[in-house]
Design a protein that fits this description.
heterodimer, A: alpha/beta, Peroxisomal Thiolase, Chain A, domain 1, 10-stranded mixed beta sheet, 12 strands, B: Peroxisomal Thiolase, Chain A, domain 1, 2 domains, 5-stranded mixed beta sheet, 4-stranded mixed beta sheet, about 35% helix, globular
Amino acid sequence: MSIYIQSASHISIQKPLSEAWMELPIVPDSAFMKSEEPDYKPFISPMEARRMGTLVKRALATSLDTLRKGGCEMPDAIISGTGLGCVEHTEKFLNAVIDNDEECLPPTSFMQSTHNTISSQIALRLKCHGYNSTYSHRGTSFDSALFDAFMQLSLGKIGTALVGAHDEMTPDYFLMLSKLDYWKMDFCHLGQLRKGEGRGSISGSCSLSMLLSSQKQENALCELKDVELIYRPGILQSRHAINEVLLRNNLSLKDIDAVVMGLSGDCDNDDVYHELKHHIFQNVPTLWYKQMFGEGFSSSSFGVYVGAVCLRVGRIPQHLFYFPEEAAMFQKEPRNILVYNHFQDRDHSIILLTK
Amino acid sequence: MGADETYACLLAGRSGIGKMKYLKSKHTDLPVGEVPFSDEELRENLFIKEDASITRTSLLGACALREALVSASLFPRDKSWKMALVSGTTVGGMEKSELFYYDFLHTREKDEYIALHDCGACTDMIGQANPYGFEMMTTISTACSSAANAIILGANMLKLNRTDIVVVGGTECLSKFHLDGFNSLMILDHEPCRPFDKNRNGLNLGEGAAYLVMEREETACQRGISPLCKLSGYGNRCDAFHQTASSPDGEGAYLSMMDALAMAGLQPSDIDYINAHGTGTPNNDESEGHAMMRVFGDAVPPVSSTKSYTGHTTSASGGVEAAISILALIRGFIPANLNFSEKIDSLDFTPVTEVKQGVELHHVLTNSFGFGGNDSSCIFSKIS
């Protein structure tokens, strides 16, 4: 059974619902980057939009856009990943509980606060009674959603799946995470991320939707060959898991044209990738994407997205190469791209994409 | 706590719903299904140090996980098998965040709890509290059907050989956030809840955790374990009707039960007992009741909601009720639905009001429905 990524749409710190980042990436200039909002009118009436939280609005726009591009009116399944869910509403209700001492609380923000609001609002909009689920597992929430969709497509339980990753970074959450060294507060240029000195990265709110299908259509981005999740692996188990993925798909490391990694500029985060590079991927060019989309619980989805777009276009733009010397040497049209992400060296994901 | 104590309570008709003791809410008049142990007692039980930062959701989860592993002869761990953990939760570490929120934003006192707030952090901590070395883990958050969806993901993983053994379920503790949230929706009963009763007036919020250990038949065979039962079918559908209300005809519930039956290759008449979602809210019980009548016609099997014993344990409920369904299956009894007195006008059936012992059950269906119309059903069957 072959599984294809049919289409994908995003709202992020790059130009929304667009692949403009391939040619002209917006270069971040601060640690707290706001997402570019698209014109919502084609997707949501202004009246609806006023009632909706930011995250649900973005999720609906990217979902409807990717379904349109993929020529699908009704997916068999809707599966989302979100590390924090609808934080905006959660904070609103939490503040009300504290400020009003548990009295006279309006239910609206509570109703909108649960993580599964995103998947269910998409289902409501589409009147989709199919499989519906939500993963909330930190930095691999999206990877878990993709894993679920991949398995159900492989089992033939479904033929299409709308898979998404949606997280917003509110100012309060940004502040809280800054106390845990999540951000380079003095960030002003990309060189700081490539050096990977000290803790922290730059934040980005990410919404991404993609349509998976077991039937290939024109303009498909690529084939999704495999999704593997592993926990606290260590380098030996990582190597073992990568080999298993390759073996299952009759490939070897030399067939992999590039590896997309979640390098972010945070020294602890990047050390894991440097070790992988040193022990496993010495001869595989390294691509990165967080310099363009920022770090967040949903950002791993952009690793898959970036890899998939490169496979469709048949070219890897220079700015995606982490090592400039690898960019200079890279000539070919990519066929197989491996996406490797981890969250705090706990949850790791390995995703194989093929032209 | 534990399967034997749960069994004893279900036989004796002893509910765990009562006055709140550990939750520090001002709404003390609301009955809750609180686990009768303090955080300190739960820590002691797990040998977790006094000064280690951990949330109550994780403590409850870790206790349940350990019991599940012991009963599956997997504690201590046998490294020859690949193991995964799939856990459901929704409020995660909120019970601490709501206490420390001021500190999160203004002091450095409670910084260690910031990282413990999210759902995934709870699963991570549960895995660590049982120093275990799972090869994979993830977290599902579909509100009150989270644990049921964990069962479904785990089963798909086993089918595709992505793991040898998978531990699935969910955990959730009481929090002001949750209690006040349900209260703001005006769906909390000030009396013990009355599922499927004409005068039912809402749910009682509960807390808890439950995990099931699932493996393929051949793995159990190789490990020399005799399984308790078989997961013969499951369904997950979306009601796609309203963010927090169920449709009048229970479309999502109907579809998820039908999917589970079809997958199990069973007729509706094969089901011997339904452990209903049965929250006790006017909306849920009527909608679920109609969905059951659509599936089972005028032969609805014995039904009860054990939320009258536990309260609504939200994200954990799919696990707690799966565990109760399996107990019923293997020990041959049907738990009673407490506090019932009068039939709902529009429904043709009434729930079981007296515990029935010494019954032979072959197939048990359990429903878990959540906000957002996330409806899931599982069927557990006796191994012939």
